[in-house]
Specification:
Blueprint lengths: L18 E3 L9 E3 L4 E3 L11 E2 L9 E3 L4 E2 L4 E3 L36 E3 L4 E2 L4 E2 L4 E2 L4 E2 L4 E2 L7 E4 L4 E5 L3 H10 L6 H6 L1 H4 L4 H5 L2
Parallel strand pairs: 2-5, 3-6, 4-7, 5-8, 6-9, 7-10, 8-11, 9-12, 10-13, 12-14
Antiparallel strand pairs: 1-3, 14-15
Length: 208
C-alpha cells in the first residue's frame, strides 16, 4: 500500500520541476530542512540557497526549517552576517576590509542566534525572514511580509513588520495540535490519517 511520496524524491509532482522537496537540494551544513518541506521556484530548487543571504561561516548561525512546510517563490532568509553595529560611532564594518582596519573590530558581531521555522508552516510569496526569528508550528506568513520577530504557533501574520492578523484556531485547539505533533508520525500513520490531517475536525485527527 502506498504511504505517500518518499521524502527523498527531488520533484514529487510528476512533470512539475519547479516544485521540489527542499532537503534534497541543500548543500550547506548550516542549513537543515525537514522531510516533505517543499519549495516552489520556476528557476528550480537549486536557487534556494541564493535566498539565504549573509550566511557566513564565521558567525556559526543556522537556518533550521521543520517538516511539511510550504515555501513560495521569492521567500528570503536574512542571516546574522548582514547585521551591523548600531551602538558604535559608525555602523560601517571597517574591519572586514583589513589593510590596517582590522583593529576596528568591535567586541563580537551582532548575532541574534539561529533562525528557526517550525513544522507545517506556510511562507508566502516574497516574504522576508530576518535574523534570529522563530516561527512557530502551523504559522502562516503572508506574501511580501517582513518577519522581524517571533511568530506564535498557528498565527497568521502579514505586513512590514509582520503582525498577527489572527490565529488559525482557538487556544484549546492549538494546544491539542501541538500535543499531537502529527508531523512526527511515521509515514504509515500519516497516510492512514491524511484525510483527517487535511480536514477541519480535530476530534477525527485524535482518533486512533
Amino acid at each position: 500500500m502506498a504511504q505517500g511520496p518518499s521524502p527523498s524524491t527531488r520533484h514529487p509532482i510528476t512533470g512539475v520541476e519547479r516544485v521540489a522537496f527542499l532537503k534534497n537540494f541543500i548543500t550547506r551544513p548550516t542549513i537543515e530542512v525537514g522531510d516533505y518541506t517543499y519549495y516552489d521556484d520556476p528557476d528550480g530548487a537549486e536557487q534556494f540557497e541564493r535566498n539565504v543571504l549573509y550566511h557566513f561561516d564565521f558567525n556559526g548561525d543556522r537556518l533550521v526549517i521543520g517538516k511539511f512546510c510550504s515555501i513560495a517563490t521569492g521567500a528570503r532568509f536574512l542571516m546574522n552576517g548582514g547585521n551591523h553595529h548600531t551602538t558604535t560611532m559608525s555602523s560601517y564594518p571597517f574591519s572586514i576590509f583589513g589593510n590596517g582596519w582590522e583593529e576596528a573590530t568591535p567586541d563580537g558581531w551582532p548575532n541574534r542566534g539561529d533562525t528557526r521555522v517550525g513544522n507545517d508552516v506556510w511562507i508566502g510569496f516574497g516574504a522576508t525572514i530576518m535574523p534570529g526569528a522563530t516561527i512557530g508550528d502551523g504559522a502562516v506568513i503572508g506574501s511580501l511580509s517582513v518577519v522581524a520577530g517571533d511568530v506564535p504557533p498557528y498565527a497568521i501574520v502579514a505586513g512590514n513588520p509582520a503582525r498577527v492578523i489572527r490565529n488559525r484556531f482557538d487556544d484549546a485547539t492549538i494546544a491539542r495540535l501541538l500535543a499531537l505533533r502529527w508531523w512526527d508520525w511515521d509515514a504509515a500513520r500519516i497516510t492512514r490519517k491524511v484525510k483527517a490531517i487535511a480536514g477541519a475536525d480535530i476530534a477525527e485527527l485524535e482518533k486512533d
